[in-house]
Design brief:
mainly beta, 196 residues, eight-stranded antiparallel beta barrel
Length: 196
């Protein structure tokens, strides 16, 4: 886990430094609403997330970039009785999903130099997902890299010439892998965009 956090930090700093002068960096606080298989595993909304995006402008309206972050889903199922074959056990059950996206992005920006700047985009890449069940003190982890994509819509509001307040929404989808079914969620984001 420490190696993964260091990797995220290194990539984020490298991307932020990559395009000084034609780049912008956005830091979001993120809320995740589980859908589909994610909701089947954990129903609770996640209030534990952040994401970081860096965009490099190839034209006034179009940017290419990279996004990463983490969203942690958690649910306490309380006391649960499980039966497997002839064995029945009762204990407390907790479930977790830790999701780390690594996405290349393309975005279209409307009125980039105006006071209010909407954009739409698409991220494609991979999600590193850690799905954990803790039952009666026994922990079972499934860790998988899953190919996925992330459509996005956001709106920036100028606070100063170099800083915008920004809100946005994303749909996250990671395809099935060997040990983890496809995971999907809606993300709601609020944060700051820094424009050098």
């Amino acid at each position: 886990m420490k190696k993964l956090i260091w990797t995220i930090g290194f990539v984020a700093v490298a991307v932020a430094l990559f395009g000084q002068g034609r780049s912008q960096t956005t830091l979001y606080y993120s809320v995740g609403l589980p859908l589909g298989n994610t909701s089947d595993f954990i129903e609770e909304t996640s209030f534990r997330g952040f994401s970081l995006y860096s965009d490099y402008f190839i034209e006034d309206e179009w940017s290419l970039g990279f996004g990463t972050g983490v969203q942690t889903y958690y649910e306490d199922l309380g006391k649960v009785t499980e039966t497997r074959g002839n064995i029945t056990a009762t204990g407390k059950e907790y479930r977790y999903i830790n999701q780390f996206p690594f996405l290349f992005t393309a975005k279209y920006h409307v009125n980039r130099f105006a006071a209010v700047t909407p954009h739409i985009g698409l991220g494609i890449g991979t999600y590193y997902n850690i799905q954990t069940v803790e039952f009666a003190g026994i922990v079972v982890d499934d860790n998988e890299w899953q190919f996925g994509f992330q459509p996005e819509a956001a709106l920036g509001i100028e606070l100063s010439p170099n800083t915008d307040f920004i809100i946005g929404a994303t749909y996250n989808f990671a395809f099935d892998s060997k040990d983890i079914d496809g995971l999907s969620s809606l993300g709601f984001h609020a944060g700051l965009r820094f424009i050098p």
